[in-house]
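The authors assume throughout that readers already know how a fold can be written as discrete tokens. In essence, backbone conformation is discretised, so a fold becomes a row of integers matching the chain in length. A single example would do more here than another paragraph of explanation. For illustration, here is how one protein appears when written out as sequence plus structure tokens:

…
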Amino acid sequence: MKSFSSLSFASDHAESLDRAFAAVQKDPQALFTDFQWFLYQGKDTIFFTAFSKESFDKEKLKDLVRHVVSLAPQLTHGFVGARPGHPLTEAQLDAITSIEMVDEFDGYPDKWLGKSEDIFDVPDLPLFRFMAATRKGGPDSQGRASIMQVRAAHAVLEGSDAALLTRSQTAGHGIQSNKENKVPLGDRIKGAIGAGLAASIHLFFAHLLSPPEKPWEFKTLPLKRDRMRRIANRLGVRQRSLYFAVVTYALHSPTDRRYNQQVIAAAYTMLDTRRTAIDDDFFRVRALMAKFPFNEDFVAYVKGVDRVLDEIEAKDITEFQTRVLAMFSMHRFLHRFFPFLYGPRFRRFQGRTDTVLTLVPPHRTFGPVTEWMMEPIYCGAFHAGANICTFCPGREYMTLNFTMEPRHMEMVSQIEPLIDRIETMELPAHDKPESHADA
């Protein structure tokens, strides 16, 4: 996994605060980039949760929030009455933290997971919540005394932020506005025309083809990383390709109703440290599209996944990101005049994508923010209408965090038997060097 910076673009902190105070008086989301605005409008959320070897009470939880906010000042943005860059008030800390006492941890963390739409219900509270459950009788047989969960609007936190915070490192993003990115006039005109067409097509098909409201389910699955590394080496593929293949193969069986039975259409994300003027000023992540040719022979399928990832990432991966960001900008412009077009029906439309796969940077605990934390570490996201698997690597475990409609969630139980079966296969010698297999 590549190293990554805690900042998107350099900025003067005092200048940023001056602009922040002036802007948020009129619009609490004024400092959001178009990407942030789009996720905020969609009520997209993320969660981060882990067990603790120490017991949490209300004051200890509030101290943790203060520390996290000092490292991730973007958490002070985006809500009515926000004072960007300033500590939260005692009243705000009380409102966004909660503690409960439990007899046992059976069913956690899954029983806690949900859409987290309540984050948006109170407009003058920060766009995140910290909650903890403490075992009444002290630590259990596994040494778990409490479990803590962070829920937040995806507009203010992404996977790389969580990875930095687990290391007790700063997760600030600099100036949260893309107005400083200068693009030539001709390119801006061509981009605006293309974005207008893309946004219009998006709106048309969203209102025409958006699926009805469906039940949504949440589940986590921890896997030992050493086990998966050995399998990837035997297959001669990247570990990332193996994880993507295992999940998509199990979820999308030959009888699954896919948009195209010949392939599994997946949106996936990657972190790229090569920042350019067209990148979003806040989000470090890049979005890519892939079509994995389906094959009932798993070995052939995983090698096909590995080959597709090679082909995609050998190309200019900024092109798709550029188009998407331009479309977000146009949606933001159109929303000012036609807000009624951006309701739940629009948010549920995900196009012709079967699955969204997100691999976040390694979450390795270090320092005062996470000295209490135990593996496995769980991290995931909810986007309306999107079947998502978020892969969260720690030192010992990779957790798979699912937010999906029930027909796919039923197939999650097939993942571990599939891994068991792969381990017993007699595999031919591969022609890729082991260093590639372990990438």
Residues 1-11, 433-439 have pLDDT under 50 and may be disordered. The chain is about 35% helix and 20% strand. The longest strand covers residues 373-382.
